[in-house]
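Thread: Newbie trying to understand structure tokens

Hi all, I'm a second-year student working on a class project, and my supervisor (Dr. K.) asked me to get a predicted structure for one chain before our next meeting. I've only ever worked with sequences, so writing a 3D structure as a token string is new to me. If someone could post the tokens and maybe explain what I'm looking at, I'd be very grateful. Here's the chain:
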Amino acid sequence: MVEANPLNVFGEPITPCSLQPLTGFYRDGYCTTGSDDSGRHVVCAIMTMEFLIFSFERGNDLITPRLQYRFPGLKPGDRWCLCALRWKEALEAGVAPPVILESTNEAALRYVRMEDLLAHAHREEEKNTSD
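---
Reply by user tm_fold:
Sure, no problem. This is what the structure looks like when written as tokens:
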């Protein structure tokens, strides 16, 4: 059962992680969780090739499409809801992908420290407005 009114790590309403590809344990675009999500897919991350290879080497192939699970296969730059403990494992290995804090579920804080999430927060490039 999906959680009602999920919040992000700032205690605010969670924002979508990705609608293309459609992510989330419930494939609703959000890093929501519930009692049937044993992996706690709560960290919204931007995939890097380094992380995708790391995950593949640990038996979790996120690259190959598996359409029977509505899984398109991921490439660098895609946003995806990761299992909190896999993100922590990648952090400890030095390959944690950047995270979108506004789309990362507050449940992630049960597994990873806010300081680590902040240190890996994705920051949009500032656009140069001067010509």
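A couple of things are worth pointing out once you decode it. The longest helix spans residues 84-93. Residues 126-131 have pLDDT under 50 and may be disordered. Feel free to ask follow-ups in this thread.
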